[in-house]
Amino acid sequence: MAKYLFEILINQKNINVNLITRKHKSITELTNITRISYIPKLFFLPYYFHLKKIDLDKYNYIILNGFPSTIIGSLCIPRSLWAKCIVYIHGTELENFNSKNELIKRSFYKNYFSILRKSKYVVFCSEFLMNKFTKKNIYGNFICIPNFIDHKKFYKKYQTGYEDKILLSVGRIIKEKGYSLMLDDFKELRDKKFNYKWWIIGDGPYKQELQKKIKEFNLSDDIIFLGNVPNEKLINYYSKASIYWSYSQFESFGLTFLEANACGIPFLAKDIEGIKHFRIDNVNSYYRENYKLLSDFITYYESRKKVDIDEIIKSSLRFNKDNFQKKWLNLLSK
To answer: Is 7 among the domain residues?
Structure first.
């Protein structure tokens, strides 16, 4: 989302923006972007020396995007300027903090919660994420600006002549996304002769172990790894799928679930907080916990006379780019 926020801001005639980011091939070449070398475990040092050269007083706001940027800001930006900061929180910031040892917390991360309290605003991508902080008695000038999907890129692209029934999963292949349980469920489904394929888009550290188990279950022909797919091509896979499928244990917003809905397919998921803000039970989504077996859900789903594609798409429309842009520009105009 930070990329889209930057694109929105640089297109405003009355806003001048400078971006400091680490060197990365995906970053567009623009004169107002400064690329900083990245040093693992000492990532803050190049930023520290660069920030020391900048007159930060001339800026109305300093946006700190994500956990590393906030840590850098808490160490490198003078406390007198913290009131100019807008901290943008996306997901696993608390988990990242808690995973560090006490020495790291007391040294490099010692100012993290202080800068949250002193910042002009702390912007969260979902109410659920904001509530996670307040439940831990962490407070500041908190605001929620929900993420969005670009409905010009994600829409129902009707496919014809495709006969396979597809379960689709998109994202990093890690244990926390529930792939082990999903594989057990898929084996049960195939054992009962349900003619489904499972497409997996993405990559990650759990992929090799998952592939090994798939081979042991003799399901290699039914489970297809598609690798990383460019954002603009995801629509082709969403539109061919029957159901979007994920047993993720945690989502801060659940962007891929919303992308699936925008393309006219419902999702089957675990009962987790991070997706409740846009799900409508038995319309755009279903909970795995409501069915004893995956085959029970598929039997129910296929027995429905009609899946209302228009209602599924409609449920995604309020999370749009215009709303995101208006809320951010309103925030920056105060």
So the answer is: yes
pLDDT at 160 over 70: no
In a shared domain, residues 308 and 198: yes
Q: At how many degrees (to 10) do helices 179-191 and 207-216 cross?
A: 20
Phi, psi of 121 (to 5 degrees): -145, 155
Q: Is 332 helix (H, G, I), strand (E, B) or coil?
A: helix
**CATH number for position 105:** 3.40.50.2000
Helices (H) and strands (E) in the chain, counts: 14, 12
Domain residues for the domain of 109 are 2-148+321-332
Does 28 have pLDDT greater than 80? no
**Are 139 and 174 within one domain?**
no
Q: What pLDDT digit, counting tens, does each position of 176-222 carry?
A: 999 999 999 999 999 999 999 999 999 999 999 999 999 999 999 99
Alpha helices by DSSP H, 119-178: 127-135
With respect to residue 328, please indicate whether it lies within any of the assigned structural domains.
yes
CA-based nearest residue to 186, from 178, 196, 200? 196
Q: How confident is the model at residue 18 (pLDDT cuts 50, 70, 90)?
A: confident
Domain count, the chain: 2
What pLDDT is attached to residue 19? 86
Are the C-beta atoms of 62 and 84 separated by less than 8 Å?
yes
In this structure, what token pair is assigned to residue 231?
Answer: 């954002």
